[in-house]
């Protein structure tokens, strides 16, 4: 997973994709709905604040977790996926 982002071209593409997601999707105001079952795992130490979690029905805040939830809490991510 991490090795992929050591390649400059892939790292640049991922960065651009992520920025586009943040500016056009994730930080949009208003309620957020999904037609598929979901649960948002969100770190309480997220540097962007909690605005990214607002508006979702199924949010689980992870105390002491930061921005990279899968890397910081792989067991909890796997358990959440299995529960869905």
Give a short summary of the structure.
By secondary structure, this protein is mainly alpha-helical. The chain is built from three helices and two strands; from the N terminus they run H-E-E-H-H.
Mean pLDDT level: 83
Instruction: Report the sheet with the most strands, covering strand number, pairing sense and barrel closure.
Output: 2 strands, parallel
Distance N terminus to C terminus?
23 Å
How many helix segments?
3
Q: What is the count of β-strands?
A: 2
Task: Determine the structural class based on helices, strands and strand pairing.
Answer: mainly alpha
Care to describe what's here?
- With 84 residues, the chain is mainly alpha-helical.
- It contains three helices and two strands, in the order αββαα.
- The chain has helices at 8-26, 69-72, 74-83; strands at residues 40-43, 59-62.
- The protein has a two-stranded parallel sheet.
- It is globular.
- It starts with 7 loop residues before the first helix and ends with a helix.
- The mean pLDDT is 83.
Brief descriptors of the model:
84 residues, 3 helices, two-stranded parallel ribbon, mainly alpha
Note the topology.
Blueprint (H helix, E strand, L loop, with lengths): L7 H19 L13 E4 L15 E4 L6 H4 L1 H10 L1
